[in-house]
Amino acid sequence: MKQRVLGIAVAAVCLALGAAACSSGGTSSSSSASPAAVASSAAPAATASGEAAGGAPFGSACRTVPATGSGSFNGMAAAPVATAAASNPMLATLVTAVKQAGLAGTLDSASNITVFAPGNAAFAKIPAPTLKKVLADKAELTKVLTYHVVSGRYTPTQLASGTPLKTLEGATVKPASMGGNYEINNAHVLCGNVRTANATVYIIDTVLMPPAS
């Protein structure tokens, strides 16, 4: 199946922090995507298996998700992805970044996507001054954010196959699974298979870095 789509740590961030703070993947590269490009690249086609429709969220961090309300699994399932993320305390920094890049509306209007969402702890690995600089650079921030999004709702079983997935940014990410533990590039999945109205979300512990141009 062709994966095209929608979709935090730019190259400068990773040079400053080293491999521990950022995970790279893929061999292709592209220029920064604008919100308009994100919208025009949204693909309605998606993989939808029984697992995607009914599989439960998994991962050690899932226990921190509220049991009720808009930030619960049931609450998030009823809202589009950016709106749902805003209700999840684990994704507060990501939500700030998405708003800074002007991508919230675009993500909410996309059809059937998978988002590899860095949790707050992933951003905490980045020194505050560096993160502030990244958030202020809309073009670079958009490039990083769109590297975390692919078209189609991917199930854990599909990610375990290890097939590289093309991101909106243009490069690929490499999923993997061993002993029930899932990774995207070298980022670990903390809470996966979380469904929103238009996306499947995998919360990860490291900001992914697009390959350098």
Spatial strand arrangement across the major sheet: 3-2-9-8-7-6
The name CATH uses for the topology is FAS1 domain
Q: Tally the structural domains.
A: 1
| Largest beta-sheet details | 6 strands, mixed
CATH class: Mainly Beta
Cα Rg: 15 Å
Indicate the structural class.
alpha+beta
The N- and C-terminal alpha carbons lie at a distance of 26 Å
**Structure annotation, total helices:** 11
SSE pattern, N- to C-terminal? HEHHHHHHEHHHEHEEEEEEE
CATH architecture descriptor text: Roll
* Weakly predicted, low-confidence segments: 1-54
Shape: globular
Task: Give structural notes.
With 213 residues, the chain is an alpha+beta fold. The chain is built from eleven helices and ten strands. The chain has helices at residues 11-17, 35-41, 50-54, 73-77, 81-85, 92-101, 104-109, 120-124, 128-136, 138-146, 156-160; strands at 22-24, 113-118, 149-151, 165-166, 172-173, 175-178, 181-184, 187-195, 199-204, 207-209. The strands form three sheets. Strands 3-2-9-8-7-6 form a six-stranded mixed beta sheet. A two-stranded parallel sheet has the order 1-10. It starts with 10 loop residues before the first helix and ends with a strand. The model is unreliable at 1-54 (pLDDT under 50).
